[in-house]
Amino acid sequence: MSRLSDHVDWQYLFREYWHLYRFTSAGGNPVIRSHLKDVRNRLNAELESNPVMELDQPVELPVCAWLGRALDQGLSERTAPVVRALMRVSGQLTWRYGYERMHKSLARKYAYTELMGPGGPAISGKVILGLVLFGPRCTYPEHSHDGISESYICLSGSVSDGNYSVFAPGALFFNPPEKAHRMTTGDFEPTLLAYAWLGTEEKLANQKMSFSTRKR
């Protein structure tokens, strides 16, 4: 059984995540400020506990053809420190869909990978950290999360949350539990997002992902 202390590149990656959630602005919003602090506190507690590491077999999905471009673009942004750390572990990532049913067009433009959480690689019941990769011209359908508060920080590219806001590298957007949200990406560049989920251990361990069936 290996621990985080046995994986130097992963240690630095999680330290960069901590700094990302320390220096990203809450925009004066007390709810978002509290969320950022909670992510940092939970992550810090996990780092101090030196969690078990369970690395799965690396898996690439079609959208991973855009990963190199997304990382290259991120190196020129203020998010470069975490992007550089990600590059050191990119060959160890297990990319997934997270849905039992996946539309063929979305399957070529979307995937996520978990970095810390109940399923590993860094085992935690307190917080889930990961990445979402979107290809250009991707529409990620409306969905919500039961009992989970969620934040995304844009690392490269750009993404709109609904039809009213566009988020560039360094920007954060926050979704409280049960809030329906929908994302779209730009025409020419991929988008890479870091995310954090907070909730009870039961909710984090048993979250089922599904798209909304509500007609728009």
From TrEMBL:
GO molecular function annotations of the record: dimethylpropiothetin dethiomethylase activity
Keywords from the named record: Lyase
Pfam families membership: DMSP_lyase
SUPFAM superfamilies (UniProt xref): RmlC-like cupins
Domain of life: Bacteria
Transmembrane segments: none
Protein name (record): Dimethlysulfonioproprionate lyase DddL
Species per Swiss-Prot/TrEMBL record: Marinobacter orientalis
